[in-house]
Amino acid sequence: MFEAQDHPNDFRVPGGPPTPPYDNAGWTLAMQMGVVYDRVLDNLTGPFEKIAPTNRVRPAAGTVASANVWHLSGAHNDAFIVVNRLLKANQVVLRKPDGTWVIPATAGSRPIVQRAATELGLSFTSGNNTGATAVRPMRIGLWDRFGGSMPSGWTRWLLEQYEFPFTVVYPQELDAGNLNAKYDALIFVDGAIPAYRSGPAAAGAQGQGGPGQQGGAAAADAIPAEFRGWLGNVTQDRTVPQLKQFAENGGTIITIGSSTNIAQHFGLPMSNHLVERMPTGEERELGSEKFYVPGSLLEVAVDSTTAAGRGMTSRAIVMYDNSPVFRLAPDAQAKGVTPIAWFDTPNALRSGWAWGETYLEGGVAAADARVGRGMVRLIGPEALFRAQPHGTFKLVFNGLIGNR
Amino acid sequence: MSWRSLRFALSFSALAALPLAAQQQRLTSPEQFFGHQIGADYVLPNYSKFHEYWIRLANESDRMELDTIGLTAEGRPQIMAIVSSPENLRNKERYRQIAERLARAEGVTAEQARQLAREGKGIVWIDGGLHATEVLGAQQLIETNWQLVSGQDDETKRFLDDLIIVMVHANPDGMELVSDWYMRTADPRRRSYNNIPRLYQKYIGHDNNRDFYLAAQPESENMNRVLYTEWYPQVMYNHHQTGPAGTVMFAPPFRDPMNFNIHPLIKTGLDVVGGAMHNRFVLEEKGGVVMRSGAGYSTWWNGGLRTTVYFHNMIGLLTETIGTPSGMEIPFIASRQIASADLPLPVQPGPWKFRSSVEYSVTANKAVLDVVSRNREQFLFNIWKMGNDRIEQGNRDSWTIWPKRNAAVAARIDAENRARRAQQQADNPMAFLGGFGNAAHRRSGAADDGRDEVAGEPRSPRIHHPEQPAGLPDGRAVHRRAAEGGHRRASRDGGFLAWRQAVPGRLVRGEGRSGFRRARARHVRGAGSPE
Fold first, then answer.
1. Of A88, A269, A398, B410, whose CB has the highest number of CB atoms within 10 Å?
2. pLDDT band at A21 (very low <50, low <70, confident <90, very high)
3. Which residues of A touch B490 (CB under 8 A)?
């Protein structure tokens, strides 16, 4: 829970490839959850009571100030539950640039706020709406595939827990286009968007999918009709153009892990940071004998003034699983790319195993990129990893509440 | 309705008492109930039938009670059989309490632990079906339970006298989905559980074995509740598929890296129980069971059903077994045909029946039951010992040696040795030759920096304590603290607290606190890392 993991360097042969851990190398939950904690070496006394092992701890009830306008801290993930409930009830919610939520006290908002204070332990203080902008709910589509993607399933569970309204979207629907008519935001978790390929192989590039692709029509025939609409994959030739149009028309695309491949498909001004320069000047991706970080916790710097980083602090711990890291082109910011989080130290490892961690320094972990009237969010690390890293949920959640 | 009242309403079946003689007559066999042997070709009963069968058996047998441990993500009751002798079942609350007291250890002396171990029953958990397309798991649960409930042999009776066996269905929703998908095809030879449209746990599918330290999903929470607040098994066994190519099964013990944070009795316990499993396979002439290097499974990561238990001082077992009701072949793999330390008895390549996989699973289960039955007191005492050790360690200055710090100390010693050799060579070029034969991490000479004289053995606090910068790469002062005498005292007088007292004000007020504060500040910033 609290102890950092120090995975031994595990190589069969010195200089050879690393032996992968069976699953993660580091997972310290308190770090993933952004819990601030310390090691206490002395006997700790205080007004404590022993909690029975079977007793589930509930947060103490929060307070609700007597006010016309409430402030709710943007630091709480649970604030999204309240905001989603208020928006669902057609209540006005605003947000300040520092992430603070602003809720006018009305007959409609009061019971929702009151209940959230009791159940979620959130406190609503007296505030004002100076500098705040009204927000709106977004129509959210969550990519999934035939057979079910686990990262998509975890995300589905999380969206339900935080009470975001959403629809599960399968590739055939994406390929059909006209996405702006149905969605404001699309989420592509790890494994959804295939790597960019140039040349003749491009048409075949696809993400993970079901039997309809590999087995052709015969396999699809064996699938009951009700599930055939789930078949197919995200492809470079059919899906990507529709996604591009969706973004250009004002849609938001949130990508995590390998789905940040979309950066290459869209020709965004960035490249892979995890490369080495050969004597010829050519850049080559680092091999696992030089850089290998299996499921571990790394520390990044966060710009909490960005739209994505609102409510976060200036440091975060991310679940990193040999995840993409970006190097922005010199003109990237001029072209509308905003870094959200980056590796600013040669020793980013906090828990797990990071072989060659110094290569990470200077790399961008997450960025927003303007695309036409819309935008793409690229999150390299597993920001929603198995519903564990509460410290980085906001990178996604902040993208799922729109500006009015 | 509270969960506790709901669960007993759901497990209505368990209490019906029938005369003993009548029961043995009236037990419904799997063949009678399902219409085929468990493990028969081309059939997979679903969870509804499984549930119905266990209700029937629990009503018929006085060796089995049925409990419902919660609801699943899709709302099905998740069931658990409690199997033991009729007498033990009558006193099961007493045995449950003994298991609880020993596992929690707090307030139990060694002598009390021995007495409780003598009186108590071994608690063994066996589950099945967690990964629903690994269909063997749930099927072997039916067969094993049947053999325990119906067996009249001496060994079975000994198991039931010595043990309380909790048999848990780990993923009811998944079994329903997968079996129904398999059976939907009319032609048995075309049945397959490939291409299932959705995940076999409503949200997370295969990741249901990645959830046990978070317990986001109801099945995880249900099982954690039984493991850690109700039955406290000393040994638990989590069934999976499939086995490495050219073998039938992977069974413990596990490869490195071992998680050095878990109690060493877990490692030795895995060796004991794993050894008993392999031993029984050889005795029964069932070949093809590999261990350790035979597969990638380890004790390092701790989010799985059988790995989270290590942090509760329970011996968690995993097997990965081949087999499908649609039939398969064991391929010829040359390296799996020669007996080796990790594969005592190879298996012949060739066709493989699902029923054989069921039989292997039963062998493995019985091996576990046998070793715990024969060493019941030892297993019960050991869980107390582990718990008690951890409580004691938490109450004094105790630190786990990490690879990083270990490597830092070794690197520093190497550097010093190199410097010394260089100096010796400068002083007397011939001495270099004499010094060259030393092993890499040896040192000798004056303990000018507080390290012990023993070659290569740094004093424990220097590398144990996260605030001890013993040769750490971030360059925090090493010599300075030692010169103040703190480390010397710490290692002799029982640890860091003694050291703190011996250097009053150092951590609280004095100038010297900066190193300590710097590290603290890093925690507070959210990193949490003691580095």
1. A398
2. very high
3. none
